[in-house]
Design brief:
Blueprint lengths: L5 H4 L38 E7 L4 H11 L3 E7 L7 H10 L6 E5 L3 H6 L20 H5 L2 E2 L2 E2 L2 E12 L1 H5 L9 H15 L4 E2 L5 H11 L4 E4 L2 E4 L4 H15 L3 E2 L7 H8 L5 E5 L2 H5 L10 E4 L14 E9 L6 H13 L1 H11 L12 H4 L11 H9 L13 H13 L7 H18 L4 E3 L3
Helix pairs in contact: 2-13, 8-9, 12-13, 16-17
């Protein structure tokens, strides 16, 4: 991902106030915290408490491991709803009121939105750059803007192919190496007994986005004169054409979203044979009734006809972001780095919080280094599939300041597939609507071909 310079940040959309769009981070309506002097670390012997608002379950148990080792810097965790389920609104409200926690769980795709309201501390001012080599490059790039570091990667979701060998064996198939093979298997399963290979969620654009990311798409790019949007590139259109055909041929189940009650019922009854999903999907798939021993994991299928595509993609992922009103940003950074890179913290996050894939470059967690669970037949899928997948992701993908709004626009278009609107047309329409949404917020944007 491109590292934005301060000059570029000043040109990304709000004229004279553009520094507050991406470069500055402060409570809305106040002077940027990143323009003020840095806040010194606590003096020797001084006891402080920092707060962390997050939706991870039992995260306090992880913090307690730190607390036992750091009596002068204690971390208190406060549970909040998931980001778009109310958590972000609580954070925005707290920021606007001049308060809020020291650290907040913020999805990677939402970091730019918090920058848009000046809500995050540039952690490079407190030494974050020295930790870059500890993290997966793709994830570190997704929190780096304007020459700064605006959050610490907390977890991610490299993607693979979960499948039931018995169902694939019924048509003499092995896990697909390419999406074309995937389509062939889907046709054979439908013809043989009406089984769907997978479902395709028209109501959740994040899945289509992950597929386009793997294909090599790069929808938003920051240039010197503002944002450049390109959602009708060949990579994106190839993915849209592919799933237009899959839906038209009835090769995918569009009635049930992965991990919904209907999906679980179909997977348990043998009506769905596979799921292309993130590493964190293992815990959800393990909830399929009667599924123990019936599932395995293979590498994600590739776009063989797109030379600039990637071996895997990513779905989901969160950060530990230090909010603008923190009184202890240095200590908050220290805790965030410890929580996301130390072996004991990663093991605790997996045990207590069911964390997604570790962002640490060389530490996936001891439980994930061994054999898989009985549910997956003892397969060591974390080291066989997901660890290599982290090295085969699109490092050039960039999130943008209105990502969630863009997803909503794209999902609204995809829902019209049932009434005859193609995914290809929906993508093109969404591009125009996203351009307007940028301009409505005073952000400068142009299409790639203009």
């Amino acid at each position: 991902m491109r590292q934005f310079t301060r000059r570029q940040a000043l040109s990304l959309g709000l004229g004279a106030g553009a520094a507050a769009v991406l470069a500055g981070c402060a409570t809305p309506g106040t002077t940027s915290v990143n323009s003020a002097p840095t806040i010194g670390a606590a003096s020797a012997g001084e006891k402080i408490r920092i707060t962390y608002w997050a939706w991870l379950k039992d995260l306090q148990k992880v913090a307690d491991v730190w607390n036992a080792q750091n009596p002068n810097v204690q971390v208190d965790v406060v549970w909040i709803p998931g980001g778009n389920s109310g958590g972000y609104q609580k954070l925005y409200s707290a920021l606007a009121a001049g308060g809020g926690p020291d650290i907040a769980q913020v999805e990677m795709r939402t970091v730019p939105e918090f920058l848009l309201v000046n809500g995050l501390v540039d952690l490079s001012r407190y030494g974050a750059d020295q930790y870059a080599d500890l993290y997966d490059e793709t994830l570190w790039n997704q929190v780096s803007f304007t020459g700064g570091v605006h959050a610490i990667p907390q977890d991610s979701g490299p993607m693979g192919f979960y499948y039931q060998p018995e169902i694939l064996d019924s048509v003499g198939a092995q896990p697909p190496a390419t999406w074309d093979e995937w389509a062939d298997i889907a046709r054979e399963l439908r013809a043989a007994g009406g089984v769907y290979l997978e479902s395709f969620p028209v109501s959740d654009a994040s899945v289509f986005t992950a597929y386009a990311t793997q294909a090599g798409a790069r929808w938003l790019t920051a240039e010197d004169d503002g944002w450049v949007i390109d959602m009708t590139d060949e990579a994106t259109l190839e993915v849209a054409r592919f799933f237009d055909a899959a839906i038209d041929e009835d090769l995918v189940d569009t009635a049930s979203t992965p991990y919904s009650p209907g999906w679980f019922a179909a997977a348990a009854d043998g009506g769905i044979g596979a799921c292309t999903s993130a590493s964190w999907g293992d815990a959800l798939i393990a909830g399929i009734s009667g599924g123990e021993g019936k599932w395995r994991v293979a590498p994600m299928q590739r776009w063989s006809n797109l030379p600039d595509s990637f071996g895997s993609s990513f779905l989901g992922g969160s950060t530990a972001a230090v909010l603008a009103n923190s009184n202890h940003p240095k200590e908050a950074l220290d805790f965030a780095v410890w929580m996301t890179t130390s072996p004991e913290a990663i093991d605790a996050l997996i045990e207590y919080s069911g964390i997604g894939w570790s962002p640490a470059k060389d530490e996936i967690g001891s439980v994930r280094e061994g054999a898989g669970s009985d549910f997956f037949g003892g397969q060591a899928y974390n080291t066989e599939v997901f660890e290599p997948a982290t090295l085969e992701q699109n490092t050039e993908w960039t999130w943008w300041p209105i990502t969630q709004q863009s997803f909503n626009i794209l999902s609204d278009g995809f829902r019209r597939k049932a009434s005859g609107v193609s995914l290809v047309d929906a993508v093109a329409t969404a591009e125009n609507q996203i351009v307007q949404a940028f301009r409505d917020k005073g952000l400068t944007i142009r299409k790639a071909d203009s």
